[in-house]
Design goal:
The protein has four domains: about 180 residues, Rossmann fold; about 70 residues, no CATH class; about 140 residues, no CATH class; about 210 residues, P-loop containing nucleotide triphosphate hydrolases (Rossmann fold, 3-Layer(aba) Sandwich). The protein has 26 helices and 18 strands. The strands form three sheets. Strands 3-4-2-5-10-1-11 form a seven-stranded parallel β-sheet, sandwiched between helices.
């Protein structure tokens, strides 16, 4: 055992739980997770908001990782959750401990040369990187500071004229805990090859906000090829005129001609307009993939020394990424997916391009997750557990599940299902005015902040147009606008009633806390089912064929996950008092209630007069003061 290993073993005994008191639900999670790691199992845990699951997951895994010379990967979809993980680590580690936690930020967020292709011979921040990194002493310096966030790494790396992203990877090799986005573990294009191109069965994995991972994984395996992009790239390469540029133009033209000919053939064979669904010509794509491999290698070298110009960015393209390189890698992804299990994919042909749609990414997630010694998938929205265990690829002989109750007093909250109105697409307009009345009448019971989350912006606007006037101020979530402004108004409000109307699955309904008086009531209008589309119907048909539960897997359970996330915004501590009102008759149906967390089902009051139910709740709370 090395000196560093011995230090880690001693440090394991000095790890402290980061809070003075351990809630009962935290104690259960710590013990069950420690047992799971000891047995090499995968734990899928539904833990209500406020459980303190970040601390409860990190504590036993970091302790074991230090004692047993393992590494912990903590991955999540949101920067705020990454920051929470880093803060929790700082509280756990004793003073003077060398860094056991490193955050890996997205390369684009760290890069000081936005808009340039990232290649070592060209980038001055990567020139002689290994030698200059060693000369700088930056690794030992940063390790001595404790847990290190991405901004701190970037600032110090740039002072040393070193690539921040590469510095963070070098630090990660020495860290016990690596905190990052899902991408760096699961995305086949950008996963951390230095860790996962060799066996990773000693490592441990924490997937936070795990309900977001299945959808993200589907995106990893759903490349789109746009005809206009292909034509623009071919024209630019022909204009450049070099041998490599002409070879790229020839390949891109071959792909465009092949795909547009396929669309034309389908238009003649099929009734009606596109999109059409048909598997691609795998032999053509296999040959194209082989050609792409050598062209990408040559392109990287020539672009690195400046012998190829970069294409100009178009609206909607990711800044900091060479558009031609991005197109070629997307083509490579398209060819790669065509070689995978065809039962997991559908190919859609449209007038604009061709898309490979991944119907089920769980086999790809399973391959990565099962490679770890042990893992935990956790979220406040993993009901029902068997559905999410399957969607995450974590089901199987190694999987155990845990559903925790709410850690907060039941009397501080009231869950109400208003079933006298119908929010289905066919009937929702008929009930828009009644829903508006229920919201305003309930909000007028008590001065404070209220959140109303709708299934779509269109339906939100329809109901808002019918809200009765007077007694409240209306605030609207705008598409694409950050939440900071609205949140500031909620924090500052002390004497008015504010009604914030947004959408389920939006920036206000996930990953945002409304503690104390920031929100005393949440209205969830209709289950947030995905919109019916060709793509979603293909997903439904796949799950109907494979599991006999197409509607449940494609629409119902993903939609209820959004609704539960939205409803869980208000109760964030043991002293918060608030109600959650689920509006729509479907919330009273057994099929829909089975998709709710266990403690929601136990407490849910189904009624045709939800305002009176909330009035009784406030009266009971006032009687205890």
């Amino acid at each position: 055992m090395t000196v560093e290993s011995e230090d880690h073993v001693r440090l394991a005994d000095r790890i402290v739980f980061p809070y003075p008191e351990t809630r009962e639900s935290q104690r259960v999670l710590v013990e069950d997770l420690d047992d799971a790691v000891g047995a090499g199992l995968l734990l899928v845990c539904s833990a209500p908001t406020g459980t303190g699951k970040t601390a409860a997951a990190l504590f036993p895994l970091v302790r074991r990782a230090l004692a047993e010379q393992r590494k912990v990967f903590f991955v999540t979809a949101k920067n705020s959750q990454q920051a929470l993980a880093l803060d929790t680590l700082r509280l756990m580690l004793p003073p003077g401990a060398r860094a056991t936690g490193v955050q890996i930020r997205a390369r684009a967020r760290s890069c000081p040369l936005d808009g340039q292709l990232c290649r070592r011979p060209r980038c001055r921040y990567q020139e002689r990187f290994r030698a200059r990194l060693e000369e700088s002493g930056i690794i030992d310096e940063l390790l001595s500071r404790g847990v290190i966030g991405g901004e701190e790494i970037a600032a110090r790396a740039l002072r040393a004229r070193l690539c921040p992203f590469e510095v963070s990877l070098s630090l990660a090799e020495k860290a016990t805990v690596v905190v990052s986005d899902f991408n760096y573990v699961f995305d086949p294009r950008v996963y951390l090859r230095r860790f996962f191109d060799k066996p990773w069965d000693r490592h441990l994995l924490i997937i936070d906000e795990a309900h977001n991972l299945p959808k993200r994984a589907v995106e990893y395996y759903s490349p789109t090829i746009d005809y206009a992009r292909l034509e623009r790239a071919a024209q630019a390469c022909r204009t450049h005129g070099s041998g490599l540029a002409n070879a790229i133009a020839e390949l891109v033209d071959d792909v465009r001609v092949h795909l547009t000919a396929g669309l034309e053939r389908l238009s003649e064979e099929r009734d009606g307009p596109p999109p059409y669904v048909e598997s691609p010509d795998t032999s053509f794509l296999e040959a194209t993939g082989s050609r792409l491999g050598s062209l990408l290698s040559d392109y990287g070298l020539e672009a690195a020394i400046g012998s190829l110009p970069l294409l100009s960015h178009q609206r909607g393209e990711q800044p900091g990424i060479d558009p031609l390189f991005a197109l070629l890698t997307e083509l490579q992804d398209f060819c790669r997916c065509a070689a995978l299990d065809p039962d997991l994919f559908a190919t859609l042909w449209t007038r604009e391009g061709v898309r490979t749609l991944c119907l089920d990414a769980s086999p790809f997630l399973r391959e990565r997750i099962e490679g770890f010694h042990s893992a935990i998938c956790m979220s406040a929205t993993l009901a029902p557990l068997d559905f999410f265990a399957s969607a995450l690829g974590a089901d199987g002989l190694r999987c155990v599940t845990l559903e925790l109750p709410s850690p907060f007093p039941r009397e501080n909250r009231r869950l109400v299902a208003a079933t006298s109105v119908d929010t289905t697409f066919k009937h929702r307009s008929d009930y828009a005015a009644e829903i508006a009345r229920i919201i305003v009448d309930t909000a007028r019971l008590r001065r404070g902040n209220y959140l109303a989350f709708f299934s779509s912006f269109a339906y939100r606007d329809e109901v808002v147009s019918k809200l009765p006037k007077g007694g409240y101020d209306l605030l609207l979530q705008l598409p694409g606008v950050p939440a900071d402004g609205l949140l500031a108004k909620l924090r500052q409000n002390t004497d008015r009633t504010l009604l914030v109307c947004g959408v389920q699955g939006g920036v206000l309904s996930e990953g945002v806390d409304y503690p104390g008086e920031m929100a005393i009531g949440v209205f969830v209008i209709g289950p947030g089912l995905p919109k019916v589309s060709v793509e979603q119907e293909l997903v439904r048909a796949y799950y109907e064929r494979t599991l006999g539960a197409g509607f449940e897997y494609a629409y119902l359970l993903p939609g209820l996950s959004r609704s539960v996330q939205a409803g869980g915004r208000a109760i964030r501590s043991a002293t918060d008092e608030a109600f959650i009102m689920l509006i729509g008759r479907r919330f009273g149906e057994r099929l829909y209630q089975l998709g709710l967390p266990g403690f929601w089902r136990e407490e849910l009051v189904t009624t045709g007069d939800p305002t009176s139910e909330v009035a009784a709740f406030w009266k009971a709370r006032d009687a205890t003061r």
